[in-house]
Amino acid sequence: MHLAAFVTAGPGRPGGWRYPDSVPGWLGAEYYQNIARTLEDGRFDLAFFADILSVPDRFGSSTDSQLRNGALGSLRLDPLHVLTSMGAVTKHLGLAATVSTTYAQPFTVARSFATLDHLTAGRAAWNVVTSFQESEARNFNRDEQFPREKRYERADEFLEVAGKLWDSWEDDALVLDAQAPLFAEPSKVHAIDHKGEWFTVQGPLNVPRPPQGYPVVIQAGASAKGKDFAARWSDVIFCSHASLESAQDFYREIKERAAAHGRDPRQVKILPSIAPVVGPTTEVARQTADLLFDLVPPLGGLSTLAYHLDVDLSTFPLDERLPDVEVPGVEGHYREVREITEREGLTLRELGKQYGGRVEGGFVGTGADVADGLEQWFTEGACDGFMVQAPYQPGGFEDFTRQVVPELQKRGLFRTEYEGATLRENLGLHRSEAGEWSNRAPKQPSAAK
């Protein structure tokens, strides 16, 4: 199986930062470098950073619940800078940053990830998102966000352009012949002359083709459009599920969608999110999980859910169930919380606490207990591995690495040493050939917008 770590460049969970063993070093490079060393010692494939481009204000049209409770977007450092510091102290760990196609430009993003891929000898990954919050739009010179369909149309063209830019240098274009002199072979560096609906980009990129061909692409689409986008473009798909059965259904669907796009389904790795709580005994782990849950303020969890759903949950009674609502935001999260609400009969207040402090998949116990659960999901067709969230940082990653990883290794389910030199190699993905992405891109209008 493959293991990725969901690391937060900020406080993360609204209860986790309050836990006595949590270390609040979010503004210092050493904090993230220590996490990187821990993950590499545990032979993790990659460290993954989500990102937000605003302090969310969807709950009650105010940032108060986010800031007061240290919730999802109360503090987020720029993940690309954080990853650079982590790359400097590691040799194998993959490094994934979230960058939105909605408020960025292809040239800048292609250049940034090509640079990171070179500086880390082929360990860069890009988590592609399409921003959906009005608060984010207002930080980027817009009064309102793009409609959902337009966001995905822009994202398709964005990735097409990024691929063309990475391909604008042939693999052997950089010669470095001091005697000739010939620094780079001009005939092997090409303008792309892209003119589409959203972008007009001349090229070439001013960074040679990345060591991996293209950085690894991560995506987390859960709507019908999002799943199709992920199956078309992604190497790794990050998801979350409230049950083994829903995870199995998602796994089958994505693999089928990838095949329908002419891709090898084995080249798409699906990693559901888990937030395990590990202890020396099952009882100690349960006590820790209970304490972490007690520390979650309901409004902190609800403000995070309001952000994900893009619905102002403050307008509904806290002591009644979440009603059926139309969700402009992340449909997958809505289906998940509806499943939890119906199964456990939660009020909105209880749902906020559950959402802010949930343990996805119920992975609580000793290293062996947690390994049992992971083995079941992996062997029963629910995933290719896991995206591991720490219930508190950095100790949650240390517990998992020291107690769960050895159990997985003992069972032959996880590597004892890194197999390859690049992230693609460690994930079992082929190196991208020039032009590969252009074949995935849907047909775009030729006239510039």
UniProtKB/TrEMBL annotation:
Residues 28-377 form the Luciferase-like domain. The keyword Hydrolase does not apply. NCBIfam families: FMN_nitrolo. Its EC number is 1.-.-.-. The keyword Chloroplast does not apply. SUPFAM superfamilies: Bacterial luciferase-like. GO terms for molecular function: oxidoreductase activity. The lineage of its organism: Bacteria, Bacillati, Actinomycetota, Actinomycetes, Mycobacteriales. Keywords: Flavoprotein, FMN, Monooxygenase, Oxidoreductase. It comes from Rhodococcus gannanensis. Belongs to the NtaA/SnaA/DszA monooxygenase family. This is LLM class flavin-dependent oxidoreductase.
